[in-house]
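forwarding from the other thread:

> can someone predict this with S-adenosylmethionine?

sure thing
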Amino acid sequence: MTKFETLASITDVLLDDATGPDLLRDTIDIYRDLLLTASGIDLGGEESIDHFDTGTGVAIGATWAALCIDDLVRTKRFVSGLHRAVQDVLARKSGPVHVFYAGTGPFATLALPLMTRFTPEQLQFTCLEITDASYLAVQRVFADLRLEQYVIDVIQTDASTFRIAGDLPVDIMLSETMQYCLIDEMQVPIALNLMAQLPPEVIMLPERITLMLGVLEDTRDQAVAVELGTIFTVDRASLAAYRPTPGNTDFPTVRLPVPAPNGVAYGQLAIRTAVDVYGGYGLTDYESGLTVPRIIGDYPTAGDPLEAIDFTYEIDPSPLLWMDFVLPGVALAGA
Ligand SMILES: C[S@@+](CC[C@H](N)C(=O)[O-])C[C@H]1O[C@@H](n2cnc3c(N)ncnc32)[C@H](O)[C@@H]1O
């Protein structure tokens, strides 16, 4: 089997909605090995391990970006969502679909499978990456797998400040530069910067990221018992509505009441993350490292009361969901 044929059979598995967990794990093992060889990346090397501080957020080191591939369901759903988005754009235009891929990591993991499903006349990528190790490695991957004809350019830059050339006809903006709860990494500043420069018909992928307050069951697997409301949504509408002022770049504060337990023995309060990738593909609680609930603390009791929590998503000096705990009669600052 050639490397292209191996990649094509990996793609078959990733795009099959009926693929089960064992086959997915075995297939991602093969995909990772293919990419490790093609990229020549040294996962233990200092230049790959260190994170890069952009000054306004963190870009993870090439080692950790490479290992995102092992977030199995994430990888599968993003590839499937991107495939659906490319199909949708192709249905309405004949020329190549142009995907602007911000934060490729060393492997361009989410892009490569589709290069076995579409021709270069149908699909083209512009790639952005900030770290030296990932920028160099991803170019080796394209060359080794002979996929360069799908790539317009690979640009080493900060995607949160990059200016898109006016003549670049972008159809899809793809970026997976996030952690659960949208902390530290630069998904929101990147999406804000790039989507503000692109016309309204451009597809943003993921389409929507939602942070929600929830109560977990008091059990070992901590399923979500109660939903207490939406904290923050990142989608085209929320990005378009964002209005920073000279002294304040925060998103609007959202207050969510925390009801008294009224005799019910709840587990812990947590922030949940949901990702709508595209076309019905998404990630919910515990399906991915991106959607692990973040524990805030025990559910309030009569002796340790809490009336509400004020949530503010900040992007300056770096991405963070700030919380103010509102006690009955007093507001206390928290983190
Ligand atoms: C979470 S990894 C994902 C890698 C790969 N796209 C995947 O999904 O498996 C995010 C990548 O985006 C890059 N990145 C983060 N912030 C960036 C920025 N502001 N500009 C360009 N690249 C960035 C990181 O260096 C890292 O390689």
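Residues 108 and 138 are 6 Å apart (CA to CA). thats all i got for now
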